[in-house]
Amino acid sequence: MSYEPGSPQCRLLIEAKENLLSAMKAIASLKNMDSIQNDLLKIYNQLEDMHELRRGEESGLIAKQE
Fold first, then answer.
1. In 1-66, which residue ranges form alpha helices assigned H by DSSP?
2. d(C-alpha 44, C-alpha 50), whole Å
């Protein structure tokens, strides 16, 4: 993910997603981690949904200002 975040909230969501990806990669080769991997993926997807909503809100704000 290499793009400029639109707000501090987006920056934090991007950072959290990147950290989750790092954690998932770190435990990928360990045994008996499927459940944890699935949980981390669910959390990642929740953060992605929050990020999408935030981007939409910011796009709406930008459109209203024009």
1. 8-27, 34-65
2. 10
Is there a contact between 10 and 55 (Cβ–Cβ < 8 Å)? yes
Type of residue numbered 27? I
Joined together, the tokens standing for residue 3 give 């793009």
Phi, psi for 55 (deg, rounded to 5):
-60, -40
pLDDT of residue 59: 77
Can you list the residues of the chain whose pLDDT is less than 70?
1-5, 61-66
Token pair 């990669």 is found at 25
Distance CA 6, CA 50 (A): 14
As a whole number of angstroms, the distance between CA 35 and CA 50 comes to 23
